[in-house]
Amino acid sequence: MSRSHLAGALALYSELHDGRPLDLPRRWLYRLAGERLGVVVLDISGRVVGAAFYGFSRRDLREGRVHSSFSGVHPSHRGRGLATELRRSAILHFHANGVRGYSARISVDNAASLKPSLRLGFRIIERYRDPSSGEQRCYLVCDFATDYFTEGQLAKDKLGRAAQAPEVEAQAQALTTDRQRNAAS
Known about the structure:
45% helix; single chain; globular; Aminopeptidase
């Protein structure tokens, strides 16, 4: 993400979080290192319509992974695969720069984020209840060398990730059903 797109990415973050801005330390981090830790999607007029910010937790540093701290697409541009392309771009960027993998925390009821993550090769490592929001969430990882398949690899491997689409759909549905069952009890 170039510095010229940072204001648009921060505005999108705020819009998707009910007007709350990104916290000051992370705003400074992305101002200083946004070209290495941020990805944006622009519409035809050059406006930021998708953004993703990355960082490192202690766990991620220990395991050689980068962590997705925010990924979002403007509502008027959803359903077009932009969030998947944000993730794919980040995977390619971080892999090329020596990072071993990628982690994310996604709410169980966010099927729009879970499905493409699972299709790209992310694995659910743990499920937990977020103590601050009470939401059921998943901690997912994608280790580039073993989990992520490029489009070329998928084309060569006819039984690859494409064959897992029903399994991914079933996994996402099972998570949503579990969440609904837990909410009812």
